[in-house]
Amino acid sequence: LNEQKEKLADTIIIKGLNHFTVFVITTPDPDTIQRILINEIVPTAAAEWIELFNNGTQPVNLAAGTGWIIRNSAGNSQSLFALGTIAPAGRVVFNTPAAWLLDTAPETVTILNELGSTIDTVTISLTAPGFAVDHYPLALESVGRKTDGISEWKIFTAPTKGTANTTPVPAVGLVGVSSINPANGYPTWYK
Question: How far apart are CA 159 and CA 153, in angstroms?
Answer without folding.
Answer: 13
